[in-house]
Amino acid sequence: MKNTTLRLVLIIGLLAGVNWLASQFFFRWDLTEDKRYSISEATKQLLSDLDKDIIVNVYLNGDLPAGFERLESATRETLEEFKTYANGHLIINYSDPSEASSEEQRQKQYLNLVDRGLTPTNVFANEDGKRTEKIIFPGVIVQADTMSVPVQLLKGNRSSSPEEQLNQSYEGVEFEIASAIRLLGSQEHKKVGLVVSHTKISPARLSDLIATIQQSYDVFLDMNNPESYEGLDALLVLKPDSAFSDDEKFKLDQYIMGGGKALFFVDGARVDSVSLDGNYAQPQDLNLNDLFFKWGARVNTNLVKDLNCAEILLNVGNMGDKPEIRPMPWRFFPLLNNFGTHTITRNLNAVYTRFLSSIDTVGGVPEINKTPLLMTSGYTQVVNAPALVGYNEARKDPDPATYNNGTKLAGVLLEGSFTSLFANRILPGDPRAAKFKSKGNPAKVIICSDGDLIVNDYDYKRNAPLPLGYDRVTKQTFGNKDFVMHALDYMTDANGLIKARNKQIDIRALDKIQIQENKKFWQALNLLLPIALIGIFGALRYYLRVRKFT
């Protein structure tokens, strides 16, 4: 009796000690190989710094197909992990938009979510031999005070299989939701400058990009031509079509020498419409070639034709007395679906381009690290400017054997300590000599050889801009906006939240043929094995008890 009491006291004392230690020292242990239940240190810091309540309304809920159930589980698990570090400032609500008292109420709920920025997905399934359709909203809305941010969770590369795309969405849950929380929780925004004084593109054609950047950053236009770009966290040069003066080039050079971050979206060739039959491409000199060359890159004065391309609507003849308009592949509009292995482009959807030029990297700049970001397919043909770009070519079936110029670089990231183009050129008596830097602090530059990558289309009937990356022909929205925003995040995010995009969850697919052939065996095994194990455990326990008391 005395031993039993002592043992009970020791157990209670041990449990009390473990409970006290758990209250004093917090830790979580993720035993999975791919760390699927862990979140990045930057996300933990973001959540622990919250000073106001953030509400996350999850609409991916209810009776879901297997693939979306996995995405829903990932969202739930990620948010529960978020809640652990948020010090009570994170509130999570789950709801199924399809639950309603009437069909009219259900449609009203759907429209409300669409108006708030979520995109529905139609899911088809077979139930008891009947084809069923369900509308689901794979997204969340993050709220704080009177502001809200829609977060689309179903992302990834559209050319991937549905299973791969869902897995890519699974991998991106942490980054997408954490980015929305950062947007609502941040009191101070980084400063981004837009160089638009060298482009003739109308503001309406840049409006979607500017509006998106303004959600996360303080935006400054260079219409007043500042003396320097000092103080900006990033600088975007948007589709210039007129040459930069040497003074303007000096400002760009010194901004990078000061450790600046710049993104250039430039054309190697200028394409002008000359008639209804086509366009004329000619070399474009922006007076930036020597600056890019000094940094280790060169934008070529050519156009790249790619068999992996978008379509244009073309009059292919008449049907009766009416013109016949058909979508035709237009190889001068490459779809970039070949990416470098970098955080910026991980799981990115294809990028839509128009009249793309190629980029070459330059040797002899060992201190600069060059990372390819955007590339064409391997089936390309290069047209050197000047050249006539005739629409009639879209009617012809291309010969793949003639598209043999290989993969071409269309976007490159340059990182390191740059050397000034103006080194040994600034004389002591020059007013600029006092602040001149010949060798720079670590900086980052991205050069993309298509200025149209950041230009949105415009719906003149509705008098409203279309989303950046939207293709009128296929009605798809490509990854242009995501590419720019991820690049900006990488450039300006000192805390490294963008690194959450590196999460990789392996697909451990089952052998479907084996499952189909041995279906009854696996069903019987799953049904009988647990019962057998319980029976064995019970028999063993009974035997030990009989042996003990005999």
Describe this structure in words.
The protein is α+β, with helices and mostly antiparallel strands and 550 residues long. The protein is 30% helix and 28% strand. Strands 8-7-9-10-24-23-20-17 form an eight-stranded mixed sheet. A four-stranded mixed sheet has the order 2-1-5-6, with helices on one face. α3 (66-85) runs parallel beside α5. The longest helix has 31 residues, at 519-549.
- Percent helix among the residues? 25-40%
Q: Gap between N and C termini, in Å?
A: 21 Å
Percent in strands? 25-35%
Give the strand order, joined by hyphens, for the main sheet.
Answer: 8-7-9-10-24-23-20-17
Averaged pLDDT: 85
Biggest pleated-sheet summary? 8 strands, mixed
Total strand count, please? Answer: 26
Number of helices: 11
Radius of gyration: 29 Å
Classify the oligomer.
single chain
Q: What is the overall silhouette? A: globular
Structural classification: alpha+beta
Low-confidence regions: none
Organism: Dyadobacter chenhuakuii
InterPro entries: ABC_transp_unknown (IPR019196), DUF7088 (IPR055396), Motility-assoc_ABC-rel_GldG (IPR019863)
Domain ABC-type uncharacterised transport system: 190-486
Domain DUF7088: 33-143
Short descriptors:
globular; alpha+beta; 28% strand; 26 strands; 8-stranded mixed sheet; 550 residues
